[in-house]
Amino acid sequence: MKTNKSEESLSRNSVPILAWDFHCEHVRELKAAFADLQKVKKISTQFTWNDESLKIEERIKEEVILVTDLDLKIVFASNGIKKMTGYKEEEVLGKTPKMFQGPTTSKTTIKEINEAIKLQIPFEKTIENYKKDGRTYKCKINSTPVFNLKGKLTHFIAFEKEVLSA
Hints:
Strand order of the largest sheet: 2-1-5-4-3
InterPro entries: PAS, PAS-like_dom_sf
Oligomer: single chain
Order of helices and strands: HHHEEHHHEEE
GO molecular function: kinase activity
Strand content: 15-25%
CATH class: Alpha Beta
Pfam family, one: PAS_9
Protein name: Histidine kinase
Domain PAS: 65-120
Shape: globular
């Protein structure tokens, strides 16, 4: 059966709808990462961080970023927080990361984290945290104190990623 040229052209240049869904989702993720990056840059500029060593631009797409003040109150959470924990950014702002801990969270690991914070040194730990719905997840935390250009501690920043077990 012979088809006309417009049908031939249409079938050759069509893209499955599913591909557009993936594309739109990717664009949404890029926009969210860009918005997150703008927010972190605003904090960085406001407190005159030397943020080049933090590699925020590289890490913001793959990891959740939490920024706390010196009282450990969350002042910024990247959009990935919802996917990892079930909480939206506005639900965690003003709270401490302890909100993610629960009965099975290692007390030893918590002590080690608190000691690193007290000594103002970077740390990397994997901890069992709790999602909004009560399920647990393993969270790899890479955290560092952030100093301004004058050397004064202003914030702590954590790069977090859910560790998926096999």
